[in-house]
Design goal:
Among the domains are: 111 residues, Rossmann fold (3-Layer(aba) Sandwich), CATH 3.40.50.2300; 158 residues, Rossmann fold; 141 residues, Reverse transcriptase/Diguanylate cyclase domain (Alpha-Beta Plaits, 2-Layer Sandwich), CATH 3.30.70.270. The chain is 42% helix and 20% strand.
């Protein structure tokens, strides 16, 4: 099988509508260059900017061995959880392979160069030269962002060169998002000179501005022309379609991966190998194209299709969430995923790997300690049977199972977590070039919740077993307590289907009061534990032993013989003698024993047998020479 280069892409929110185009471009470029591509994607923003814990989102990168990659591409633009981009960037600095940043300048990283200023300049000149507008406004992004600063400066530069006021009719500071469209519309309409055109620093702000103008009765482009930047799907689908400047996504992806391949092979790269030239799209919002009736219908049909798919996806997600919440094992979770995971796109393989600790326990085991750098496969869905399933763990240097298919592969790797707990990661291989939709994120969140439920249930089960053990176990000796002894022997006797010979023994320590008086109760407890240990050692033929309380012990045996009883007593004497020989204290461990052998059926009562044994034990104790209680 051909040894392909393995490249990685680190990014966030890659299933958003804008990033989805870029991700598809990387998938196509990977196939064109015949390389394997591992895409590490973070969820990004959920409801608020900090609603996802930074450690959960970026924590997986701490367990990724970067030495397995021949090159790494970094898209820091989509990380909108505080601190994530910096943390991932810091980790990537330790990579020995070349790293290329595809959207910003980062010291020590290679960079894909965008002629953003050239694209914005061309757009402004289009309004000046083609439409002959001179009253132009500018809607900037938040002016702490380098792209916002750069694009505003280029706007001012063109205006100065044409002998116009550098701020045009006015500059409004936006947010690179939809939130300030209404405020911007009021600002531009309140200016002494109403703008003929407004250049926006990105599409989202342009769409929000056009929407605000529409609500105020301002016609775009009839009253005011508007342009955006980035060429997003939202801009292309809005009516009127947005005139914009687009970064050529396929050029970005292809040149980024080709640059990594060339650098890893030690080849020389030129400036042209790094440069991507933006393209202007002149359409309806600037007046270059009429609002076409058929285009409107196409857009409406596409939106309706997407809404139907979203509604169906929601129903399917609700059903899957209910099923997963009832799952009592990862095997059940795998079955549910295999049968119900139809709403995020067609995929060929899915694997769920969880952390193991040094004892081999999975991260959803309640006694899991800390990650060991090893991962255990717990869900394995291989639709084409291209992967050899293994129960063995994978190391951080081999995160992806081996495929038998001799072709380029693209994998998506995402952390699987719940609250503050990182369980592991998922690996997904899509069947086509498109990335999954947002419902895959819903699946991962639900799987994380299900693993958390398994962990909590495991903790509860173990706690119940421990509590049950405490309720029938003597804390001092580890033998059954009186309750445990009675329950276990009663079950044993009631299970008889025929008459059996049974033996009941009562064993009482000799001289415990003297030990307590002369050496203290700690030493008395030590002596009780020593006698209990002797009893435990003798119980190797199905005997049931328990501590009745104080220094008294009970033993019960079914299907017993006189020979077995003699062996038991002889060994008791032997083990006690061994203890006394090694004991440095000035006392001898001793015991008295009363035994009773009889035949009984399932109606026998342990209390009756022990009563006779206790009388015989007391008689033996009273007849010992020099008896001291």
């Amino acid at each position: 099988m051909k040894k392909r280069k393995r490249l990685a892409l680190f990014g966030s929110s890659l299933s958003s509508r804008y990033k989805r185009i870029l991700t598809r471009a990387f998938n196509i470029a990977a196939e064109e260059l015949d390389v394997d591509l591992v895409i590490f994607n973070a969820y990004g923003k959920l409801r608020s900017i900090n609603s996802v814990a930074e450690d959960n989102e970026s924590g997986l990168i701490d367990y990724v061995d970067l030495d397995q990659f021949d090159g790494i591409a970094f898209d820091g633009e989509g990380y909108n959880v505080n601190g994530m981009s910096d943390r991932v960037e810091l980790r990537l600095r330790s990579a020995k392979c070349p790293v290329v940043s595809i959207n910003s300048t980062i010291e020590g990283f290679h960079r894909i160069e965008f002629d953003d200023n050239g694209g914005l300049r061309t757009m402004v000149e289009h309004f000046l030269d083609h439409h002959h507008f001179t009253k132009i406004g500018f809607m900037a992004g938040y002016l702490t962002h380098p792209d916002a600063i750069s694009r505003l400066e280029e706007f001012r530069s063109v205006m100065r060169e044409r002998g116009l006021p550098e701020d045009g009719v006015g500059v409004f500071e936006g947010d690179f998002w939809y939130a300030k469209g209404a405020e911007a519309a009021r600002y531009f309409l309140s200016l002494p000179e109403r703008p003929e055109a407004i250049v926006c620093a990105n599409d989202y702000m342009a769409v929000s501005l056009m929407d605000a103008f529409r609500k105020l009765g301002i016609n775009v482009p009839g009253d005011i022309a508007v342009s955006g930047y980035d060429g997003t799907p939202e801009g292309r689908e809005y009516l009127p379609h947005l005139t914009s400047v687009t970064r050529q996504q396929h050029d970005i992806a292809y040149k980024a991966l080709k640059l990594l391949v060339d650098l890893s092979d030690g080849r020389e790269v030129s400036e042209d190998d790094r440069k991507v030239t933006p393209k202007c799209i002149y359409t309806q919002s600037c007046g270059c194209e009429p609002l076409a009736y058929m285009h409107v219908l196409d857009t409406v049909d596409r939106v309706h299709d997407e809404l139907r798919n979203v509604n169906e996806g929601i129903y399917e997600s609700e059903s899957a969430m209910v099923k997963l919440n009832k799952a009592e094992s990862v095997r059940e979770m795998q079955t549910i995923f295999s049968e119900d995971s139809v709403n995020f796109g067609d995929y060929s393989a899915f694997f769920l790997m969880v952390h193991k600790d040094s004892a081999g326990r999975p991260s959803f085991d309640s006694e899991f300690t800390q990650p060991s750098g090893k991962f255990m496969p717990v869900m394995w869905v291989d639709k084409k049977n291209e992967y050899k399933e293994s129960s063995h763990s994978l190391s951080s240097s081999k995160l992806i199972p081996e495929s038998s298919a001799d072709r380029s592969h693209v994998y998506y790797v995402m952390a699987v977590h719940c609250a503050e707990k990182i369980f592991g990661y998922s690996v997904l291989e899509m069947a086509g070039k498109d990335i999954f939709n947002e419902f895959y994120n819903v699946w991962l969140h639900t799987l994380g919740l299900s693993l958390d439920s398994l962990k909590k249930n495991d903790h509860i089960d173990k706690l119940i077993r421990r509590l049950e053990g405490l309720s029938v176990t003597d804390e001092l000796t580890g033998l059954l307590n009186r309750r445990g002894f009675d329950e276990k022997t009663r079950v044993k006797i009631q299970g008889f289907t025929e008459t059996k010979t049974v033996c009941a023994m009562v064993i009482d320590m000799d001289g415990l009061k003297r030990i307590n008086d002369e050496f203290g109760h700690y030493e008395g407890d030590r002596a009780i534990r020593a006698l209990a240990d002797c009893i435990k050692r003798c119980c190797d033929s199905g005997e049931i032993a328990g501590r009745a309380g104080g220094d008294e012990f009970y033993v019960f045996a079914a299907d017993y013989s006189e020979a077995e009883l003699k062996r038991f007593i002889d060994r008791m004497n032997e083990y006690v003698d061994e203890y006394n020989a090694s004991n440095k204290r000035n006392y001898k461990l001793g015991f008295s024993i009363g035994t009773y052998m009889t035949e009984t059926d399932s109606y026998g009562r342990i209390e009756d047998f022990l009563k006779i044994s206790d009388e015989r034990m007391y008689e033996q104790k009273m007849n010992k020479p020099g008896r001291r209680r």
